[in-house]
Amino acid sequence: MSCTIIVGGNFGDEGKGKIVSHVAHQDRPTIITRGGVGPNAGHTVMVGEKKFGVRMCPSGFVYPDARLMIGTGVLVDPRVFRHEIEVLGVEGRIFLDKRCAIIEESHIQEDKTNTHLSQKVGSTGTGCGPANRDRAMRVARLARDLPELQPYLVDVPLEVNTALDNGENVVIEGTQGFGISLYFGSYPFVTSKDTCAAQMAADNGVGPTRVDEVIVVFKAFPTRVGEGPFSTEMSSEKAHEKGIQEFGTVTGRERRIGTWDGEMARYAAMVNGCTQAAITGIDHVDPSCFGATKYSQLTKTAKDFLKQAEEDIGAPVTLISTGPELTQIIDIRDEYE
Ligand code: GTP
Ligand code: IMP
Ligand code: MG
After folding, report:
1. Which end of the chain is more exposed for a tag (fewer CB within 10 A), N or C?
2. For residues 77 and 80, what is the distance between their CA atoms, to the nearest angstrom?
3. Sign of CA dihedral 283, 302, 8, 257
4. Distance from the CA of 147 to the center of ligand 3, in angstroms?
């Protein structure tokens, strides 16, 4: 029985979607529930040749035996929610907390046209900042106010804590990443909420004493979308040369790419209370590791990189992702139990 939180240690887009999906298939949780800001997140999950992009639904949806939930603290865009239910075929097993605040069309317009948000911060234009403001002002509508959402409403904290009382596994899925936390990130170039493990627990009404594992996901070559400082950033030409350029799931913007930042990794691990780390994109460190599923298949270059990363993070690296597909992963969590 355990409660596992999965969060991002860089600037978002670390590949949390893939890690959550893998952990779900291994640990068989009865609930996978989302924390984080809202539909500004874009998780990618690749199963075989099929690629799914999700913004509201927990990316653990590819594991069919869990109930899927959206925590109390998360902003809900009803249009995106309904669209994903249809496209992903998750009707009947997806629920949201009755107190989730709603993103209105006007929030989206404001996010896209406000110069500070759209140009200085480089927001995703999904209405999250203005909706969180209205929530703090106590004028936002909540999910319970919308007739169309009634069939999906539950008390997420009650569901999650009851599952834990019954000895079931629960996965709490974070979005965004440490560097864009409203509190700990590079303010003002940040999102509209904290992005750390404690926030993900709070978003779901889970107290700190109930959390067993915090898996922080780092990217071998961190990326950043939008504005803001990025100390290890490389030029776009260099990223293209290395063949590691990436584009955003939500906005399609080209992601800025950098090299490993040990100092940031250590600080992110500290604030998150990291018990284990996941590293994605090891195939970018050494392309010959692409698709490896066993630690012994990794090259010296990759192993040296992981050793340094583990030293920086100060916690064991137990999940090593070797490509975008769900099964391209090395899972050595057993060795640390
Ligand atoms: P946010 O919630 O928006 O922070 O996103 P996320 O952490 O779920 O990550 P996202 O899916 O936006 O971006 C990660 C990208 O890397 C996706 O395109 C994944 O398919 C891809 N990816 C994940 N793991 C690996 C890996 O090990 N190697 C490679 N080459 N790509 C990977
Ligand atoms: P907002 O959250 O849309 O207001 O955007 C604020 C900043 O956070 C911008 O720099 C966005 O690019 C960034 N951001 C928000 N959500 C994500 C995410 O899920 N992945 C990566 N960057 C994000
Ligand atoms: Mg993303």
Report:
1. C
2. 5
3. negative
4. 30
